Amino acid sequence: MGIPESCFDRLAAAYPEQLEHRGVWLSSWMQIENSVLSRTLEWFFKNWARCPTIVEFKEETSRERDRQRTALRRDIIAACPKCVSGWVVINWDKWIAKPCEDCRPEQFDRWQTGKYLPS
Predict the structure, then answer these.
(1) Which of 17, 20, 107, 113 is 20 to 30 A (C-alpha) from 75?
(2) pTM over 0.85
(3) How confident is the model at residue 6 (pLDDT cuts 50, 70, 90)?
(4) If DSSP codes are grouped into helix, strand and coil, which group holds residue 4?
C-alpha cells in the first residue's frame, strides 16, 4: 500500500460516516507529492472537526506546498556559509549589506541591476 492509499484509509477511519468514493479521492491525489499529502492530512486532523471535501483538501495542499517551499528556502539561507541570514555585509559600521548571490539569487540579480527595493 502506498502513501495515498494509507492517507485515504486514515481519513476514512477518522470520518467513517462522511467519506466514500475512494477512487475519486485517490485520483485527485495523483499529482500531489507524498510529503504534501501526508502533512495536509495531519493539518486537517489537527484543525478541523469535520471531513474536508476534495476541493478543500486540494486547496490546503497548495498552502502546504507553499509552507514546504518556505521552509526549504529558510534552511538553505541558514546553511549558506557565504552570508549572514541571506545577507553579505559590506560595511558593519554603517549596516550596509547586499543580498547573497548563492542563497538569495533573485534578490541579488535585482540588486545588481538596481531594481532591488528592500523592505
Answers:
(1) 113
(2) no
(3) very high
(4) helix
